[in-house]
Amino acid sequence: MHYLLQYQTSADYLEKRVLFRAEHLQLAWSAAERGELVLGGAVGEPIESALLLFNVADPAQVQAFAESDPYVINGLVSSYRILPWHTVVGHDATIPIR
Question: Which of the residues 47, 64, 91, 98 has an alpha carbon 20 to 30 A from that of 18?
């Protein structure tokens, strides 16, 4: 199942990001190497949020990622949501419908 982890970034996100970016990226790349995190990155110009696409069986895995993310722990993320995404079109859709 696909899940979107939607981060709302704090007003001082860009200033603080440099302090925690290496640790955040290490966490993200580890999840990607396990096959859990498909894509992730910041959204907007200027940056207003971030989206991370997970392909996992249990949304608890996404919750665990967010709870261990230094961006969340250190207040760079003001809020987040985990959204089930029922993908139906594309080669990687979890429920392909033609």
Answer: 64
Model pLDDT for residues 10-64, shown as the tens digit of each residue:
999 999 999 999 999 999 999 999 999 999 999 999 999 999 999 999 999 999 9
- Confirm if 84 and 2 have CB atoms less than 8 A apart: yes
What pLDDT does 28 receive?
98
Single-letter amino acid, residue 49: S
* CA dist 90 → 20, 52, 93, 97, 98 (Å): 34, 18, 5, 9, 10
Q: pTM score > 0.85 for this model?
A: yes
The backbone torsions φ and ψ at residue 5, rounded to the nearest 5 degrees and listed phi first, read -100, 115
What's the rounded Cα separation, in Å, for the pair 95 and 46?
34
Polymer length in residues for the chain: 98
Instruction: Say if CB 84 and CB 3 are below 8 A apart.
Output: yes
State residue 15 phi and psi, 5-degree precision: -70, -40
